[in-house]
Amino acid sequence: MRRFIFVVMLSFSAAFIGCNKTTEQPQTLPAGAHVHADGTVHVGDHGAVHDVDGWCVEHEVMEKICSLCSSKAAAEFKKNGDWCKEHDRAESQCFICDPSRKEKSIAQYEAQYGKKPPKNPQ
């Protein structure tokens, strides 16, 4: 009987010792998300890639006014009559209708930060 109790106790001990090993699962980020240097995760309304300088890398406009990422910005552009219905974005940010608008957007970033905006790695 003592032997039986010893075997049972040994089995439970082995099970608990083996179970205390924790494996940390890698955090799965949503598509287009990135982690800032301070550890915060950032992703736009629909998962666009952004940069810490406030540049929407995917859409090549300042992040706070990106009509494709920010539903708040989109609502403001629509309210002000600045909306391209054909391409579902702010008319002033519709590079499809007028490619020269992209140059203006990039110039805004360069004026604020004194450097070229980051490129989309994709």
Task: Please characterize this protein's 3D structure.
This protein has 122 residues and is mainly alpha-helical. It has a domain at 41-117. Helix content is 34%, strand content 7%. The chain contains three helices and four strands; from the N terminus they run H-E-E-E-E-H-H. The radius of gyration is 26 Å and the shape is extended.
Please supply descriptive tags for the structure shown above:
mainly alpha; two-stranded antiparallel sheet; 3 helices; extended
Distance between the termini: 68 Å
Percent range of helical residues:
25-40%
What's the SSE pattern? HEEEEHH
**What is the helix tally?**
3
pLDDT below 50 for ≥5 consecutive residues: which ranges?
A: 18-27
The dominant shape is extended
Give the strand content. 5-15%
Structural class from helices and strands? mainly alpha
Strand order of the largest sheet: 1-2
Major sheet details = 2 strands, antiparallel
Give the mean pLDDT. 74
User: What's the alpha carbon Rg, rounded to whole Å?
Assistant: 26 Å
The number of strands is 4
